[in-house]
Every structure is written in structure tokens, then in C-alpha cells.
Amino acid sequence: MTSGKERTFGNVKPVALITGSAKRVGRAIAKHFAEQGYRIAVHANQSMDEAKEFAVELKGEGIEASAFQADITKETEVKDLIDYVYFYFGRIDVLVNSASVFFPTPLSELETDDIEKLFQVNTFSVLNTSRWAARKMAEQATGGAIVNIADWSVVRPAKDFTAYIASKGALTTLTRSLAIDLAAIHPSIRVNAVLPGQVLLPPDAGEKKRQAAIDATLVKRLGDPADVAQAVQFLVESPFVTGVCLPVDGGRTIFGGEFYDATVHG
Fold it and tell me: Which key words tag this protein in UniProt (predicted)?
């Protein structure tokens, strides 16, 4: 596996576009790729002040970076985003679809507007951003890598999040389908997904909720956005891996909450 520091094209370093990278997990992914020597396209919609500040911070560390605004629920703005990033940097090597919305959706309170918003941001924008970025990647001899950020709960759904989980669950099928379609266009365009567990607790989470999150894993620690970033890098820089949906959840997907004791259960 080679890092962005090693993987240059002549004297040109690779470019990573991370949607929703002004804050939270997207920012951690962008920061990680910057540290690996990538040039960074920071994306935001309503958080442009934070995006610009982040880009300035990266530039202060010697990283070529710029902030780009787009409402990714609108296809025209998605197309413009890809064109602007490509024009600014001259290439797009990595796309990480990190932008997301998340809120409870109990069936008794579910509105059509909620469903549409979740699918527009979490599902449809991923398809549109991927297919337009892939057009640029197809022009490059080296192709490119796309990583979608889904959610561990698509395997073990939680109560009152049906619409959200459905919008993220679609990404596993979308990832595999895109991997097939885009490889037919250019065999060096690969598409994978990360399914993170709980890597960020709510600001108001108390010690009880924190401990519950730890107890729900096999590794007995909290997840961290850096765990997701490392998994994304692995998928980006592993040339024989495509169509993979990788859980990064400390074993939470497979752990039922207690260890099975054969001497008790027979």
C-alpha cells in the first residue's frame, strides 16, 4: 500500500475530495489524507465558514487545499462542484462521500419530507457525486477510488431510525453496483464503502451512554473518527479491493452483547 506522499504523478500529488468535510468525521478523513500527502478539496454546504477555516489551517501546514460550496442534493451543483475541483487541482484521484444527515425517524412521526431529505442527502447525492467524479477519473490513466460512508446499523437496525437506516442501507447495494459499472468504463476506478460504528457520541451524552457504547463492542473502547479515516485510506490505496463494504465498529455488528459460554448453554 502506498501513501499519497509516495504516489505522485510526475511532480503532482494526488487529490482527494471529501464531501461534508468541514467538521466531524469528514474533517477527520480530510485531515488524515492531508497527512498522507494528498491535496485536499474541502466541501461544505451550510458550513462554509468552517470549511474555509479548515482549508486555511491545512495550507498553514504546507498542504494544498481549497474549500468548495455545493448543495449536493442538486445535480447541477454536484456537476459544478466536480468541475470546479478538477479545474482547481487538475485531477481528482479520490472521492469520499462523507456528507450525511442523521435524525430519529419514528414511524408514528415520520413525514414524507423527512424521507425525501434523508434519501436526497444520504443516497441520491452519493450516486450523482460518484458518477460525475468518475467521468473525470476515467480521463486519468490511473483511474481513481471512491469510498462511501454508510453505517453499521444497516446490518443491525435500531428502533426509530427506519428512514435513516434505509437511506444508508441503499449505499451497500449502490457501492457494489457502481464498482461493476465503473470498472467497465475504467478498470482502475474502484468503489468501496466503510460502515462505521459509533465513533462520535452526542455532546450531551453522559457516562452511562458512553459506557454502553463501549460495552457494545468486542474491543471494549470507544470508536474514533480516526478509525474510519484509516479504513478509508486502506480502501483507497489497496488496488485489488473493490466492491467491499467494510464494517469499522469494534465488532459491534457481530456481538450480541454478551459472550457465549458453551459450558452454560451446552
Answer: Oxidoreductase
Looking at residues 63-86, what average pLDDT do you find?
A: 98
pLDDT-based confidence at 259, cuts 50/70/90? low
Reading the block at residue 3, the C-alpha cell is 501513501
User: Closest Cα partner for 107 from 157, 168, 159, 165?
Assistant: 159
What 8-state DSSP symbol labels residue 45? S
Superfamily for the 15-248 domain:
NAD(P)-binding Rossmann-like Domain (3.40.50.720)
Sheet holding 39-44, edge to edge: 65-69, 39-44, 15-18, 94-97, 144-149, 189-196, 245-248
Structure confidence at residue 199 (pLDDT) = 81
Residue type, 181: D
* Rounded Cα gap, residues 158 and 215, in angstroms: 16
Q: Which pLDDT belongs to residue 206? A: 79
Residue 265 has pLDDT above 60, yes or no: no
Q: How far apart are CA 94 and CA 188, in angstroms?
A: 12
Kindly tell me if the per-residue pLDDT of 34 is higher than 50.
yes
- C-alpha cell belonging to residue 248: 469499522
Residues 6 or more apart whose Cβ sits within 8 Å of residue 189: 134, 137, 138, 143, 144, 145, 146, 182, 183
- How far does CA 201 lie from the centroid of its chain? 18
